[in-house]
């Protein structure tokens, strides 16, 4: 199987965005605040948005299954308060669950959390539990910066995050470390904020002993790890100066990287520097970069082409990147596939 571990519902029906606009307007004028019941999205609307977009491209590009979560830039945890985020997360997670119910052979859900700046992360646990136990979610997206580019939260090594980690360990689910929209004009959302966050999260783990406290905790750092593979020597050297163990021992039993890198030299670098066991196939299709590369004539986010073309992976290693590693990291996904005889 070819499993894409990084998909978002970026093509959700327009009614979802319209409802969100009303929710945001209601923060200033409560008379405009919509009820949850007022959001009406039919199964046919969901089918149309998926069949003409993600599912069509999956079939064209040759991927079999996508781990599907709410649109990252829509999480916008900096808007409103915890109740705002709680209602919004519940709606978005339910929609992804409905996608997985309508297309069970192609999509399996992962959850966004109802994070809010300055609010105890433990408040997210009820939504996490619901999504795992009722919706069959196989992972979560964890935002290390709910402030939207101002970085007001403590680092991922801070013990305020530990209640979430405890639940992750209990359920044996990984977290994709994924920020949302930047409201800081210094940081473009997808061009800098996302990649900065990937690099920052890795460094927060490097400088801490978080994985001594949680030896089975698993983080997936998306977008190829931001700057991490390109500056692997820098991180190795910094760890050495801090008297940390070698990175292979210190971090690579717990941290994984995806292949949302949108050119061949980038994938070549990733697969040369990072051990194959730590790389999971992903595309984030219809996401941050949706155009066609004029140098190749193919879509930038058609990442399977880069995996096929790299000279750094054997056939067995490609199988690990495409399927084996995902099943090992997302154990609930593996169980769901085995229950189907796959």
From TrEMBL:
Residues 3-330 form the Amidohydrolase-related domain. GO terms for cellular component: cytoplasm. Keywords: Hydrolase, Lyase. One of its GO terms (biological process) is secondary metabolic process. One of its GO terms (molecular function) is hydrolase activity. Pfam families: Amidohydro_2. Coiled coil: none annotated. This is Amidohydrolase. It comes from Comamonas suwonensis.
